[in-house]
Amino acid sequence: MVLIVLATLFSGILGLALVIHRARTARHMGLPTRRYWLAWVIPLTVWLPLVIYINVFAADPSCSC
Asked: What is the overall mean pLDDT for the chain?
């Protein structure tokens, strides 16, 4: 379980590094950066809680959630 949570967080951090790079490039070109940030934030806010929920409740077979 811990490994999956860490991998999820690592993925999010790797994505963050890419977003920062792309947003900085777009800003220097005078383009809007919002789409890059939304492309990172929306999936992360859906995916991370889902992965945590699955790992917490799927690990306990006696849970009736």
From this structure: 79
* Cα 4–Cα 17–Cα 36 angle in degrees, nearest 5: 105
Contact 33, 23 (CB under 8 A): yes
Q: Transcribe 10-36 into DSSP letters.
A: HHHHHHHHHHHHHHHHHHHTT---HHH
Q: 42 exposed, middle or buried (CB, 10 Å; 0-12, 13-18, 19+)?
A: exposed
Q: How far apart are CA 19 and CA 31, in angstroms?
A: 14
Q: Span 44-57, mean pLDDT?
A: 81
Name which of 4, 2, 12 is nearest 51 in CA terms.
4
